[in-house]
Amino acid sequence: MSDALSRPNSNVIDLFTGRPLLEAQRERFIRISPELDGLEMLYSNDTHKNKLFSLKILCWALRENGEVVGLVPWLNKLVACPAIKDPLNGTFEGYYDPGIEEIFFDPPIHKIVELESAAEYYEASSPDPKALVQEIPDTIGTHAVLSERGSHSLTLSEVVSWRLLNDGTVEGMLVDPDLVMSTPVLPGDDCLFAAETCPDFRYYFQHMIANKIKSQDPEAMAAISALVDES
Fold it and tell me: How far is residue 107's CA from residue 104's CA, in Å, rounded to a whole number?
């Protein structure tokens, strides 16, 4: 039997991406590690072509194919930095260390070693695609914007943690106030639920934008209202 035929899904094409299903499966995240040194992602967009913007990196992720990438909350999900896209044609421009003002394009070697070592040490398999693999705390002040369809009211909810599932999905975990039994609420608490499962969930924002929304900043409110209307 040929090597290709011996692999499940080796000749199956994903109808949405046009890529082999096996290739997509090997890009799933199998291990994540929090970014604790303040490293950032740089990006540009069509509106300000001569300007770079930055976002704090939440964590680093190891794919099944061995690639390591930084992850950031981007619009309504956690996205690999090199793959960001937005309505203004956002483009990844590299990673950035603000402490030494250095731009780089490859993940830090210490994070690669950490992720590879942890993946080998904690290697486990489960037939359940939604089995919990890891849960890490949110360290960059991410908030989720919730808004009912057809409503102009907004609710901001702090993301407590992020859960990596066996299928490679990473979900932001929010607090259900009706289920809180003790405080502070910590990763793994039974009162947490995935933002992505809530029909009112719209977008993720880091703390700087979230604080502007909380203070009713006119520009921030106009921008978020436009995004919510589009969604």
Answer: 8
Pick from 10-14, 76-80, 142-146: least confident: 10-14
At 4 the pLDDT is 39
Crossing angle between the packed helical segments 207-214 and 218-230, to the nearest 10 degrees: 100
- Count CB neighbours of 133 within 10 A: 20
Question: What mean pLDDT is predicted for residues 188-203?
Answer: 95
Q: Are 64 and 54 in contact (CB under 8 A)?
A: no
Long-range pairs of 6-10 with CB within 8 A, sequence gap ≥ 24: none
Among the listed residues 221, 179, 224, the one whose alpha carbon sits nearest the alpha carbon of residue 204: 224
In this prediction, residue 135 has a pLDDT band, given cuts at 50, 70 and 90, of very high
Q: Is the peptide bond before 87 cis (omega within 30 degrees of 0)?
A: no
Cα 114 to Cα 19, 46, 53, 123, 172: the distances in Å are 30, 36, 28, 14, 23
| Integer CA distances (angstroms), 176 to 20, 62, 95, 182, 190, in order | 39, 30, 34, 12, 9
* HEC profile of 16-61: CCCCEHHHHHCCCEEEEEECCCCCEEEEECCCCCCCCEEEECCEEE
- Structure token pair of residue 214: 């909380």
pTM: predicted TM-score of the whole model, two decimal places? 0.83
Residue 1: its pLDDT value, please?
Answer: 37
Lowest mean pLDDT among 6-15, 112-121, 180-189: 6-15
